[in-house]
């Protein structure tokens, strides 16, 4: 388990003071794939670097598998870091070394004998699907293949936690999907806890079970991906889920109240809700935004409606009669 307790990080330099993380508390369960998503500058990299103490928090505690990292000696920390490895956007391979040597490198540092290290490295090359690239140099590989080698290297010390810092941001969509599949496969086969840092919602939707949304150094929302993305509450989450925003022109906030509907089954998504509201109740709702998405193998729909003030109570009663539908009133500035 990874626990961040009231973690803050402030950078102070000639340019001034930046509060990159503010009182962040998170718990990541063993074996989970946990996404941390946010806009550029939100503090994602700083947060992930605090998990392995590449960055020391200014305040707060970081506890990984029961060990409090921020209280460790340098030698203890080096040992702990073998269990918390990381992959990066730019792969960070040693260009003068072959792929096999790259994968052997962390084992060399840990004092593993050469033969044993090479045997393990070959197993890992198999696992990442590149058994024939042992003697190739990184420059001879595609970006996706280089990331596979970086993943193999990250697994060389039998880690319990894999941190992925924008690991697919430099890859095209197809390669991204293949690398995400590999990460998911590793999570399932080896039971490794994975923390995925990304600015792309598609990455979180594809593989994560839980997500935290980071905005200006703060966790503004966290929980199951399906719960957070189907009913985003914070401004930051709504920006991610509805990047285009709502069209203000379709709706006059002074004349109506807003209802967010969340559908959680294929049968409910198939009901022509707005048409029935008009036909059966003569209530003409504004559809401000609507989307369906597949999250964790289930179909979820979400619709934001503007309902004329005088008809709101009747519309509310109508929605309450429909099974598998969650309705909530939201404030008029919600998009
Ligand atoms: N070493 C540093 N010195 C000073 N400020 C820093 C340092 N590292 C990060 N920051 C600042 O902390 C804030 C958070 O940066 P961070 O890189 O963690 O964000 P991010 O969400 O990962 O952004 P991006 O997606 O653009 O990489 C930014 O304002 C950044 O300028």
TrEMBL record:
It comes from the Bacteria. This is ATP-binding cassette domain-containing protein. GO terms for cellular component: plasma membrane. Keywords: Amino-acid transport, ATP-binding, Cell membrane, Membrane, Nucleotide-binding, Translocase, Transport. GO terms for molecular function: ATP binding; ATP hydrolysis activity. SUPFAM superfamilies: ACT-like (SSF55021), P-loop containing nucleoside triphosphate hydrolases (SSF52540). One of its GO terms (biological process) is amino acid transport. Residues 2-241 form the ABC transporter domain. It comes from Brotocaccenecus cirricatena. Belongs to the ABC transporter superfamily. Gene3D superfamilies: 3.30.70.260, P-loop containing nucleotide triphosphate hydrolases. SMART domains: AAA.
């Amino acid at each position: 388990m990874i626990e961040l307790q009231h973690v803050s990080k402030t950078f102070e330099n000639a340019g001034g003071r930046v509060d990159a993380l503010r009182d962040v508390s998170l718990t990541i369960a063993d074996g989970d794939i946990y996404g941390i998503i946010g806009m550029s500058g939100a503090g994602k990299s700083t947060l992930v670097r605090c998990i392995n103490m590449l960055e020391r928090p200014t305040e707060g505690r970081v506890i990984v598998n029961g060990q409090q990292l921020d209280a460790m000696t340098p030698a203890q920390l080096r040992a702990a870091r073998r269990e918390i490895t990381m992959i990066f956007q730019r792969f960070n391979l040693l260009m003068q070394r072959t792929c096999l040597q790259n994968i052997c490198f962390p084992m060399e540092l840990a004092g593993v004998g050469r033969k044993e290290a090479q045997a393990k490295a070959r197993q890992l090359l198999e696992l990442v699907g590149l058994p024939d690239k042992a003697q190739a140099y990184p420059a001879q590989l595609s970006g996706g293949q280089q990331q596979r080698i970086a993943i193999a290297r990250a697994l060389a010390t039998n880690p319990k936690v894999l941190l992925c810092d924008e690991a697919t941001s430099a890859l095209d969509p197809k390669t991204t999907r293949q690398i995400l599949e590999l990460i998911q496969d590793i999570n399932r086969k080896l039971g490794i806890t994975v923390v995925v840092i990304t600015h792309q919602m598609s990455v979180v939707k594809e593989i994560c079970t839980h997500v935290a949304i980071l905005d200006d150094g703060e966790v503004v929302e966290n929980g199951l991906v399906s719960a957070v993305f189907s009913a985003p509450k914070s401004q930051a989450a709504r920006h991610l889920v509805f990047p285009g925003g709502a069209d203000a022109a379709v709706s006059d906030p002074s004349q109506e109240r807003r209802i967010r509907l969340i559908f959680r089954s294929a049968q409910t998504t198939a009901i022509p809700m707005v048409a029935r509201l008009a036909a059966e109740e003569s209530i003409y709702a504004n559809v401000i935004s609507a989307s369906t998405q597949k999250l964790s193998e289930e179909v979820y729909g979400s619709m934001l409606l503007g309902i004329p003030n005088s008809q709101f109570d009747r519309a509310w009663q109508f929605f309450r009669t429909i099974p598998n539908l969650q309705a909530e009133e939201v404030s008029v500035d919600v998009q």
